[in-house]
Design goal:
6 helices, elongated
Length: 174
Amino acid sequence: MAMSAKERKQKQLEREREQLRYLDDATYPYLAKPFHSCASMDPNWESVTLPLELAGFNAPVFETDEGPEKFALEDALPQNEDPRETFAGFRGSIGRAEVMVDMLLDAASELAQIINGYKAAELSERRAEIERSDLATPEERKIAFEAIETISKIEGQLEKNVRRTLPQWKVKGV
């Protein structure tokens, strides 16, 4: 069956994204100093380390200009894939930092989805419990109605997405 115009465009965009993935960042030829020599000297570096430490993670240390393939846990990489293939387009300590941003965003997005699903399921369960309960008195019905109204408002908030603005950290295909 023939693809629709929308499907063809989606395939084209997917191919373009895949091609960009293997390209080096357009800024790399212009970066004279390695990232590792600047990162920890940046006055805002504590703004990176503190939130990670508060979340229970050891903050990254950039002591050398080694790329992301040197730091990925061996078990995390696909068994039959070359780490250089996995991290194609990312070089040196700046590439490692770029991969960290990508992976932290992926992890944060997935964790937010899991939390959202958990809360939605629990709220649905509480609503069902309230609806099944014996509301004999007008006061019990009033309390139950208020609880269901609050649950509905919370569910409405959980259906929304959160938008955070980030500065651009990768420039490919320029």
